[in-house]
């Protein structure tokens, strides 16, 4: 490199060297470079042979597949993620129920909720299901119904387009899933916080869209508790035969808890199937989703205990293996 050729600059012209300093030995420097190169090569080979970084090949971990849907309803391209239980073509339990996860992007709730579905398929404790994660963008816009209270419109100026987002889900995402994956007609909708509000709103206004509705800590404070206040009237206008509602609440309290109580009370009064988990003693708004989802899956989709056969001898106190047969 220019300015670094010591034998031609510093050595020959004395630049940067004290007066009387001897010129550098060109042959000696060449030998030193050879020795350093040999040492570097030997070190590289040693690291490779002893489990250093060079011994590993890197590849991404895959957990489902992402698809882009050009939505006519929303007027833009949107991403959905899909996970199918392994060996679906050999599984007698296929085709599967579909779990539609709101806030289902990879930087949202995709991995931890889909991980629970993978646990169900692996452990046979609850039925396997296809998970479809719908990634949200402007959550205030996409997950809230139009507010009638102007205070909420002023506080959340982009809000109120839940109906359009629901149409995207039912008219575009569901047909795509039905046409491309091993699924049956039964489906569930799950979400937490504002996504839980969207689940409750869909249950009350469009119950035919899904079979099961899992609303985890739903933000029913929205629009001065409007959905809680109107729950009984809305439910009277629809048929809920074959529909199930699961509600879980953390320690939020206040107007949110008031509206959750109103929704649950209306469901009980209407005689529909409703499940309520009060997790306020152990969970906060930030921690409830994973725990509540697992409880919901075990309650709604439980499978008979797996038959492991006779207890092996090594799990019995004082047990002995059977004698070898001649």
UniProtKB/TrEMBL annotation:
Q: Which Pfam families match?
A: Esterase
| Ranges for region Disordered | 1-23
In its keyword annotation, does this UniProt entry include Hydrolase? yes
The GO terms describing molecular function are: hydrolase activity, acting on ester bonds
The entry's keywords: Hydrolase
**Superkingdom of origin:** Bacteria
Entry similarity comment: Belongs to the esterase D family.
This chain's protein is named Alpha/beta hydrolase
Q: Which organism is it from?
A: Henriciella algicola
Q: What is the lineage of its organism?
A: Bacteria, Pseudomonadati, Pseudomonadota, Alphaproteobacteria, Hyphomonadales
């Amino acid at each position: 490199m220019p300015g670094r050729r010591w034998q031609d600059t510093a050595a020959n012209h004395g630049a940067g060297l004290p007066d009387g300093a001897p010129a550098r030995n060109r042959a000696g420097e060449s030998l030193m470079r050879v020795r350093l190169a040999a040492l570097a090569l030997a070190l590289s080979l040693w690291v490779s042979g002893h489990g250093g970084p060079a011994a590993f090949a890197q590849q991404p971990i895959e957990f489902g597949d992402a698809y882009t849907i050009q939505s006519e309803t929303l007027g833009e391209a949107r991403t959905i993620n899909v996970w199918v239980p392994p060996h679906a073509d050999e599984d007698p339990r296929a085709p599967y129920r579909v779990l539609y996860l709101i806030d289902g992007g990879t930087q949202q709730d995709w991995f931890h909720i889909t991980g629970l579905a993978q646990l169900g398929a692996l452990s046979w404790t609850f039925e396997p299901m296809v998970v479809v994660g719908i990634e949200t963008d402007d959550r205030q816009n996409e997950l809230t119904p139009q507010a009638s209270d102007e205070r909420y419109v002023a506080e959340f100026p982009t809000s109120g387009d839940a109906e359009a987002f629901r149409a995207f889900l039912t008219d575009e995402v569901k047909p795509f899933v039905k046409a491309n994956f091993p699924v049956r007609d039964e489906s569930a909708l799950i979400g937490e916080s504002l996504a839980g509000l969207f689940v409750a709103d869909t249950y009350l206004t469009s119950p035919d869209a899904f079979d099961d509705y899992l609303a985890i800590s739903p933000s029913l404070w929205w629009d001065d508790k409007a959905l809680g206040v109107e729950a009984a009237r809305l439910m009277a206008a629809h048929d809920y035969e074959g529909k199930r509602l699961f509600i879980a609440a953390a320690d939020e309290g206040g107007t949110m808890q008031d509206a959750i109580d109103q929704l649950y009370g209306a469901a009980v009064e209407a005689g529909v199937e409703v499940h309520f988990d009060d997790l306020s003693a152990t969970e906060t708004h930030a921690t409830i989703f994973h725990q509540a989802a697992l409880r919901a899956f075990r309650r709604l989709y439980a499978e008979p205990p797996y038959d492991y056969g006779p207890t092996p001898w090594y799990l019995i106190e004082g047990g002995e293996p059977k004698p070898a047969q001649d």
